[in-house]
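Final report, results section. Input specification for complex C-07:
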Amino acid sequence: MTGGWTGKTLRVDLSRGVSSIEDTRMDWARDYLGGRGLGARYLFEECSPRTGPFRPANKLIFATGPLTGTSASCGARYMVITKGPLTGTITTSNSGGHWGPELKFAGYDLLIIEGKARTPVYLWIYDEQVEIRSAEALWGGTVWETEERIRREVGIPGARIASIGPAGERLVRFAAIMNDLHRAAGRSGVGAVMGSKNLKAIAVRGTGGVALARPRDFLAATWAKKAKLRTHPVTGTGLPTYGTNVLMNVINEAGAMPTRNFQQAQFEGADSISGETLGGAWSRQRVGEKVTEKELASSLTLANKACFACTIACGRVTRVSEAGRTRFQVTTHPHHWTAAGEGPEYEPAWALGSDCGVGDLDAVLKANTLCNELGLDPISMGSTLAAAMELYEMGLIRPEETDIPLKFGSGDALVGMVERTAYRQGFGNELAEGSMRLCRKYGRPDLFMGVKGSEFPAYEPRAIQGMGLSYATSNRGACHLKAYTVSTEILGIPQKTDPRVTEGKPEIVKAFQDATSVVDASGLCVFLTFGIGLPEIREEFIAATGLDVSMEELQKAGERIFNLERLWNLKAGFKARDDTLPRRILKEPIPGGPTRGCVNRLHEMLPRYYELRGWSKQGVPTGEKLLELGLL
Amino acid sequence: MAKFLKIIPERCTGCMQCELACSWVQTGTFAPSRSLIRVNIFDELASYAPYTCFQCDEAWCLQACPVNAIAIQPQTGAKVVIPEACVGCGLCTIACPFGTVFYDPKVSKAAKCNLCDGDPACARACPTHAIEVVDADGAGWVESWGQRVQKSFVEAYGALAAETAATAAKA
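Structure output:
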């Protein structure tokens, strides 16, 4: 008997208003595992890379992995695979929470959305019963409102909902798909694709189960893994106590904190938006300090929260402070301003904070909550605003074009522009197109800080050489999640390497990219790789599915997934010249701080990287490579 | 020695490992919808609370059952459903004042926590020790829980409540 996968795929054609259940291609599942890999394989087969991201011909694929919905620690992830509107590349956006496992319990490995509904609809999946329901009354609502109303409408309290906010409806190019209120398949604008299909939400309830091939082995493997995660300093203490934002001070001290649209590499206000400040009395109590009840009551962090089956629990449950509620005026009034929200994680805190020069935690927290509520990716939001702020201060954006002065450090501009962007009001309409298109429009394409249309995340590639290569070669544009070399270059996991050295980095980036593809495909969360490695994942994978794969085969699967995505991008028209970094990163040295004078030396790494990958000088996988991976 | 599950909601992170473990024991698959311990999520209050059968002394489920399909297991004191005897009438699910006896539509029988013969899987699986197995005689946890409820009550109703509480204590 096999387990892990459910073996079924749900296909919904919104144009014709019909759905069908079919067998998952198990021959593909063997080669591409699931999640990111299997989804990419389906997209490769069924969707032309040349199609427009907002055309009905583009497909939106939700994919779970074989370990999603099992008791494997951090097995909560699902992937959204589609052609991204921000980049035009294949995009694979990942989210946790409880929605992915619920889809699995309903009996599906994948959910493939095709076509475009004529009027707004939402999808209600209750095991094998699938309905396309009208969402006319829900259209325009925020994420929280939508979830509440759908849950009431379907009448099942256990239903899990993934939805888009006003940003996705208005095709904001970096709109997110939100699930379980605060979890986001955030990057690359997958929410806009969902909006272009007139699909407001997908509600799922599953009462089935996920079976295992070798239960005894599986439980033994997960027990061992759990114990490891619990005792590891990062996954056992750091992340649960401070969340991902524990990185803020670490990265800032290393001089790798991009500030004011990458003009500086250290932010003087970093500590005021750090995980330690956000955690406040709550975190201090957790590490054993004595705190008074009064201090605890004023803490912005209320609790930590886990995704499904997670041992780490890095999620921050926070609330907007009194000052945040009253000082920054917005016209949308989420009726839950006083209730607990989630975040900011490190990336949003950086994008909305130091990249915009805002060191005011009240403003950052409110902007982040607004992003969740309206369905925006805070990384691209913050980065785009930062680029606009630079253009504004240079005088290229004239003061009369925007109703709020876009000055670096302005909390009002931050909170105000998040709202205007989601609703495409005023200057927000320009921001909604993303940083690349904004900078092009104002005649300074070099001020766009990103790769292939996707904005950089929170690590300065001039200070951390490996991250530069990782950004330049990531298949969905600049992204920190496809090869997180920060872990070796700054944090020293598994071994410390020098962030200023380029030697050896192509090897690391390739290895990380392949390993991350496996993690993403299996349905696990990349955070667990701080504590455990591929051998443990392999054990779980074998016990769950009954497929005896060797370490080499598993790594090969990761490589295959990465190459398949690359092929898709090449077919979409991307060339080796797109694997590059902005002029500022390559030519302008960092002006001050511990990393003063550094630039990214991509030219020292890229040729070697192509060689390692088995790609030609034009960045095209060679015939031998494709044969070796079974892609030809 | 009679046992029951002590639940400490402040420690819960809402990860559902207990539901996974329980459903595994019940069905041999991971199917949280059939778990006998359930995590309630109060998003607005940032609070998560697993709840399951208290194995209460009154055992209304046992008393309500028309065919005597609920019995007391001598080793643990757990009230257990005997599936062979259960006719699936659902009376016990109505009788339980805590709502912790469930009806499983897939097998048309009642289902409730049976303490896994004294070694509950949910307590083992919990990564934050929010579920503990304790002896029923040392039910000290009820006291601390009661005090917390009392405190929030006093905060809400002020002096009136304190007075009532004092009178009750005297009596």
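The helical segments of chain B are 17-27, 60-64, 91-95, 121-125, 140-170. The interface with chain A takes residues 13-17, 20-21, 23-24, 27-34, 43-48, 106, 125, 127-128 of chain B (CB under 8 Å). This concludes the modelling results for the funded period.
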